[in-house]
Design goal:
Chain lengths: 500, 309
């Protein structure tokens, strides 16, 4: 092992990690110097989270070595890593909302004398950290749930300070911050940098990354494809590295022609939507919706489906009954919705496949108030076969199915409902390649039958491969809507990360 | 699918077997007279369990069940004493129970309060109202046919009318859960409320109905309670809600919702009834029964978790 230069704070060499057959990281190197802000870039699934989790002790690498300040570093777990001065700030902040600022900051590293908390000492430490961060106005005794997101982020950083962190890992810290708060955050990061703290900064917002980072490492498909000084790299160059050559994937081309109006939105804004939306959808059309997590796509779908209250504007569903704005009415108007997280919203895990399949539409089986279970079973079995759901029969419990098959059950319900407008939120996330291909095929066939599909996805290749038009959201606004042929991987990434 | 009842059923067989093997009681335990006695004794808990099964499957709970039963029994006694026709009095008692259930349901759905808390409060309120109505003492009533509902050895019928009613209603509720849309909705709400809402199920309305049905069954149970004691006693059935809930849980009901069955709950009722019956015959003190039942509840739930892993 060659001796690392003295200014090297962290050296990760040859890191590899697999989860069963999936290779998450392959021979990845990362160097971090003292007082350096290092951006870790890459698409979803490129391996960024896995790499930092290995550093923070949450995961153990299969192969590779780490050195911290010239000494070998192999943490036994997250606490060990924290004791060595590595602090991780997750995207979903790890705070206990009912506890105070002080209690949260000192959580796990409380100062105590034989079990009795030393409140004065802890308070002093906390106040010092908050002052350094230029936020003396955050009262140490306030319960965290009363604070804004940006304040909560400050508290997580304060925790790292109190821990005397030498390396700070920040995962998407600005995804929920306003521009002003982000600028403030960068000032704090520069102050930490001046103190010699090394920061690993993961973010999709490339403009900001260019603003604050000194150096970068780009991962793609588990491998390192580039590293260097930020100043010597252009935005376009970085995007090209992240995206690489067009991935050769097979997207079944099922011919279909969008024709006739299906859905019309005028100044449409739901409860959690940032700005009003104007959109026209046609029958037989597949609309792709791209954008980063938190860009407003899910909020739009939920408002469309009536899960979030409509605050202004109008929605017209053509050929559907005129009814209210509850999702019950939307189902009757012909809309079907597949939510992002099937397990918590979309499937009832303890119930059978057939009960899940028919949950939104029991009418065909009701006779004088009683269900014709025989018919229900027959239809459910047929639907399972048609969708290729791998199960013994439709009586099996959904919880025993694989992720891909669970997904197919959730989708099949929309078929059973005879939905004409399908709102799909990340339908292929987290499922196997074969099931993905089947879903693309199925979406194409639906369009050929004249159905409308709204396909939300964070994975650009599938948007380009499957959709007719693609809309991109950035920070709550629909910034661009163009036919799929006019988009490229680079322009999609730019639109999603920069907004132009 | 039948397997889910196997566990509780084996438990029932075990309990009966153990007692029938005990020398002190074996000559009396399995006698028809004793079996009829057990059946009659379980009616009150069983009726409450029929409603509670629906509530627990939907992911809720009703701690006010026993207070509701006591209140209904007092109302029936009150009504008969006041000269009201016995049938009307019975209906009044059942409706009163339904009203309490309706209030529970309304508070839970409109205020979005946790069922545990709402029904905990109602536990005290209903009991208090019962005591207030009865003037804090038992209400004696003249004899009517209502008192015959829980008679141990009725002429003609094999079992007391109350027992036949329990059996009939059990079949009805089982059919409701299995064969109606309403039944499916109960399971859906209990299994995953967010999913049920997504599928257009009317959550508020369904829950309101579930708690009202639960209340109606408590009302009916109160009528039986009155029949058994032949007086309206506001202090009766204290703690019975725990027996009712235990029966549902032993029978396979999950407190987090989405699972449970009428047959399982009935088996749970009978496991506890046989336990009490056998223990009393053996001359074991009350506290032994309580310890055993408590242990069985923990055991049954643990077994259930293991089976579902």
């Amino acid at each position: 092992m060659t001796a690392a230069p003295p200014s090297d704070l962290l050296n990760m060499a040859g890191i590899s990690k697999s989860f069963g057959p999936t290779i998450a990281l392959q021979d990845v190197d990362l160097e971090l110097k003292k007082g350096e802000i290092h951006a870790l870039l890459g698409e979803n699934g490129a391996g960024k989270s896995t790499l930092v989790k290995i550093l923070s002790g949450a995961l153990k690498a299969d192969r590779g070595r780490m050195t911290l300040a010239s000494r070998p570093f192999a943490p036994s777990g997250p606490l060990d890593s924290r004791i060595h001065g590595i602090s991780m700030i997750y995207q979903e902040l790890n705070l206990a909302p009912h506890l105070t600022v002080t209690e949260n900051i000192m959580l796990g590293r409380e100062i105590h004398l034989r079990g009795i908390l030393q409140r004065k000492d802890m308070r002093r430490k906390v106040e010092k950290a908050l002052a350094f961060l230029n936020h003396p106005e955050i009262a140490p005794d306030v319960p965290v749930r009363k604070l804004s997101i940006s304040a909560r982020q400050i508290i997580e950083i304060a925790r790292a300070l109190v821990d005397e962190a030498v390396i700070l890992i920040m995962d998407e810290p600005t995804s929920r911050l306003s521009r002003e708060d982000s600028v403030q955050l960068f000032q704090i990061m520069r102050r930490l940098k001046a103190q010699g703290v090394g920061i690993i900064y993961i973010s999709h917002f490339l403009e900001e990354v260019r603003e604050v980072a000194d150096s970068y490492t780009v991962l793609r498909d588990g491998q390192r494809v580039g590293t260097g000084r930020m100043s010597s790299m252009s935005l376009g160059g970085i995007i090209r590295m992240m995206v690489g050559q067009d991935v050769k994937e097979l997207f079944p081309k099922i011919p279909h022609k969008p024709e006739g109006p299906a859905l019309s939105l005028k100044n449409f804004r739901g409860k959690n939507m940032f700005s009003p939306l104007n959109l026209e959808l046609q029958q037989g059309e597949i609309l792709g919706v791209g954008g980063l997590v938190g860009s407003g796509r899910t909020e739009m779908l939920r408002a469309l489906f009536g899960l979030d209250r409509l605050e202004e504007g109008r929605i017209t569903v053509f050929d559907g009954e005129k009814a209210g704005d509850h999702c019950r009415d939307r189902i009757r108007q012909g809309m079907g919705y597949l939510s992002e997280d099937r397990q918590s919203e979309g499937l009832a895990l303890s119930l059978s496949i057939r009960d899940n399949l028919t949950m939104s539409y029991y009418e065909p089986y009701v006779r004088w108030g009683f269900l014709r279970l025989g018919r229900q079973k027959r239809d459910a079995d047929a639907l399972c076969r048609r969708m290729n759901v791998k199960a013994r029969d439709s009586d099996q419990r959904v919880s025993s199915l694989s992720g891909g098959n669970q997904q197919k059950v959730a989708l099949a319900r929309l078929l059973h409902q005879k939905a004409d407008i399908l709102l799909l939120d990340e339908p292929t996330r987290g499922i196997d390649v074969l099931s993905k291909a089947q879903i693309y095929d199925w979406v194409g066939r639906l369009a050929a039958e004249g159905k409308t599909v709204v396909f939300v996805s964070s994975y650009f290749p599938e948007l380009i491969g499957v959709c007719d038009r693609i809309a991109v959201f950035f920070r709550g606004d629909l910034v661009s809507l163009r036919p799929a042929e006019e988009w490229t991987m680079e322009t999609l990434t730019t639109a999603a990360t920069v907004g132009t | 699918m039948v397997l889910k009842w196997l566990g509780p059923f084996i438990g029932l067989i075990l309990v009966v077997a153990i007692f029938s093997l005990m020398p002190e009681v074996q000559d009396r335990f399995l006698r028809i007279y004793n079996l009829k006695s057990v059946a009659t004794q379980s009616v009150i808990v069983a009726l409450g369990a029929l409603g509670m099964t629906l509530i627990i499957i939907s992911g809720g709970i009703d701690l006010s069940a026993a207070s509701n039963i006591a209140l209904s029994s007092v109302i029936v006694a009150f009504a008969i004493n006041a000269g009201i026709h016995p049938l009307a009095a019975v209906l009044l008692g059942i409706m009163a129970g339904g009203l309490v259930g309706l209030i529970n349901g309304a508070l839970i759905t409109s205020l979005r309060l946790v069922p545990f808390i709402v029904t905990l409060g109602m536990l005290g309120i209903a009991r208090g109202v019962a005591k207030w109505m009865a003037g804090n003492q038992k209400i004696d009533t003249p004899l009517t046919w209502v008192n015959e509902l829980m008679a141990k050895s009725p002429q003609g019928l094999l079992l007391a009318p109350g027992v036949w009613l329990m059996i009939g209603l059990a079949f009805l509720m089982a059919a409701l859960l299995r064969y109606t849309v309403f039944g499916k909705h109960i399971f859906a709400i209990g299994s995953n409320e967010a999913t049920a809402r997504l599928c257009g199920i009317r959550i508020g309305r369904t829950k309101l109905l579930i708690y009202t049905i639960g209340g109606l069954f408590c009302g009916l149970s109160g009528v039986m309670q009155f029949s058994r004691l032949t007086v309206g006693d506001p202090t009766v059935a204290v703690g019975l809600e725990l027996d009712i809930i235990a029966a549902v849980v032993i029978g396979g009901g999950s407190l987090s919702g989405g699972m449970g069955s009428i047959l399982g709950s009935m088996i749970g009722v009978f496991i506890m009834a046989f336990l009490r019956n056998g223990s009393t015959m053996m001359g074991w003190p009350n506290y032994i029964q309580e310890i055993i039942i408590g242990a069985i509840i923990v055991f049954a739930v643990a077994l259930d978790r293991i089976r579902h892993k």
